[in-house]
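Running co-folding for 2-acetamido-2-deoxy-beta-D-glucopyranose.
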Amino acid sequence: MKLFLLSVVFILTFCTTRSFAASHHSVDSKHKARLAHSTANKAVERDVPHHAVLLSKTRGHPKARGGKAQLKEAINRAQAKYQQSFKNYLANTGNVNKLQNTSFVHDIVRPRRSKTKRQQGVDSLTDIDGELLWTGPQAFGTPPQYFAGGQDFDTGSSDTFVNPGYYNPSKSSTARDTGKTFSVQYGDGTSASGKIYNDTLTVAGLQAFGQAVGDATSSDIGSESAGISGMAFPSIAQFQRDPFFYTLRKQGAVSRGVFGFGLSKENARLDLGTLDSDSYEGDINWVTIDDSNGFWQTSQGTLNGVPLLTSIIDTGTTVIVGAPDQVSLICLQAGGIVIAEGTDIFCGYVEGMAPPQFTFEFNGQQYMLSRDAIDFAQDGPLILTGIVGSGIGLLDGWVLGDAFLRNLYAAFDIDNIRAGFAPRR
Ligand SMILES: *[C@@H]1O[C@H](CO)[C@@H](O)[C@H](O)[C@H]1NC(C)=O
Ligand SMILES: *[C@@H]1O[C@H](CO)[C@@H](O)[C@H](O)[C@H]1NC(C)=O
């Protein structure tokens, strides 16, 4: 088994001294903020421009995480998130989201995160480790409250909320109780609820004033991140308020409505208000985005020559999810083995044999699925890829999650409603 094992939790902490002093308008300024990037034993300090944050993620050995269980967990999360977004969209617009399969019913018999599951020993870690979220520092309130674990920056949702026990509005001079509450009921049986505050959000030395922040007072969503910061479009925001990047843009904290994710094993980063040309090769290959359903949705992609009618670029989903029949076909044609389990499809190959190859294409440019996304998990003698087939309630839709995005630089532009890719440098 040649899979590289890493089970180090990187905790990002933000060194306050200079970054907080950085004014929110100097997006392209040369000022540097110091990020203390602390690993298990030693702190590595790096200078990064203050409009960027370093991201980190928790990884574990695929086998230790339970292989298939890890993929299932990612499917559950995606299903839950999209179902919630569809509900929000209906509440906000009065219309059923065009991407929603309304005949889809939650598969509530799926294993849910629960205390009983956690008591099962080794497997109990799968539901936490399987999340594999990209997180980075983001603070709330005045003075800024930073949380270990960081925020999960998610281009697949649009609200900002914090899990219980982190944000303390009574210790923030800028917190305003909006009198509104929120409640998310996920299809896998988990839920979160709490109060919505207006408060100052600080990220990468930029400040969003009066940002809607959900302070969860109850939650049974197992998570290693402090919370989620949604970066999709306003129409799927449950809070019916601007996502934080919109607030930054409207208030002039950033002069361009662009942000860029560089997801890679080392030095993963999120740039706000600018794209870091040192982090990618060549030019950004821009694709047209249809924002009418609230997601970073494009119809320009193909996978191994098969057109993807709808694909959603989603940094908050670990895997690539497609319709089961399409995934089966593409997997078999690529030389993979299809493993059906219930209504889900996994695509794998026998360890030691030639792995299937997957190539995405946008505007004539090809992006091969990276080897670590092909060797995503292990299930006995099989290696499972990060491409799964599951009816998560999307009509003919694909979710292009981290398995697609790793080793790319992904750019998002709310001014021109477009997204793009370039090879990561
Ligand atoms: C919609 O959901 C139903 C029920 O899960 C499923 O049988 C059907 O295949 C789905 N349709 C599409 C187009 O995904
Ligand atoms: C919170 O912000 C919204 C949007 O700016 C505003 O309409 C509302 O009055 C604010 N609420 C409070 C309590 O400050």
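Result summary
The helical segments are 16-19, 68-93, 115-118, 126-129, 244-250, 324-333, 371-374, 402-405.
Residues 187 and 256 are 37 Å apart (CA to CA).
Job closed.
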